[in-house]
Amino acid sequence: MTSIIINKASSADLETIQSLGIQTFSETFSEHNTEEAMKKYLEESFATEKIKSELNTPDSFFYIAWEEDNPVGYLKINSGKAQTELQNETSLEIERIYVKKSHHGQRVGQLLYHQALETAHQLDKSYVWLGVWEENLRALNFYKKNGFVEFDKHIFRLGEEEQTDLMMKKILE
Q1: Could you count the other beta carbons within 10 Å of the beta carbon of residue 155?
Q2: Phi and psi at residue 132, to the nearest 5°
Q3: Residue 121 belongs to a domain
Q4: Is 113 a catalytic residue?
Q5: What CATH number did the domain enclosing 43 receive?
Q6: For every one of its 173 residues, what pLDDT tens digit does the chain have, with 9 covering 90 and above?
Q7: Residue 43: its H or E element
Q8: Residue range of the domain that includes 66
Q9: Is 93 part of a structural domain of the chain?
Q10: How far is residue 113's CA from residue 100's CA, in Å, rounded to a whole number?
Q11: Which of 34, 57, 94, 152 has CA 20 to 30 A from 136's CA?
């Protein structure tokens, strides 16, 4: 494996984030959801205007993992009022860590996670939190291995289906 470089994304990376988002979300969740529900979610969540707005939100940050000139994963984190739920000034939300299936097991997710921690420390946050689908065992194991503990649950809607996300957090040293 060649080395992975993590770069902060800008508005110039909009199409890269869109294609990475669509590919990685599809690879992760297609087999568990209807084609119709997936299509609707992907069209809404990765619409050009939505991604452009997220990229221009001052308290949201995107990072892309690159293997040479090939984007292989990305991270989206939120601070302050950009957080999807807690909106606590002392916390940072990890909204997304997604890695292409071809790069699972190659520590790309770990590098993106370390970028989130580094950003949390730079912003003087006391904890990081996230929501993860209760049936996404790969992600659950990853977060537990990294010291996250469950503190609540919330409902995530995908199409007509209600799915339970476990809310997890990690106190920073």
Answers
A1: 9
A2: -140, 135
A3: yes
A4: no
A5: 3.40.630.30
A6: 579 999 999 999 999 999 999 999 999 887 887 888 888 889 988 999 999 999 999 999 999 999 999 999 999 999 999 998 887 899 999 999 999 999 998 999 999 999 999 999 999 999 999 999 888 888 999 999 999 999 999 888 777 778 889 999 999 98
A7: helix 35-45
A8: 4-125
A9: yes
A10: 15
A11: 57
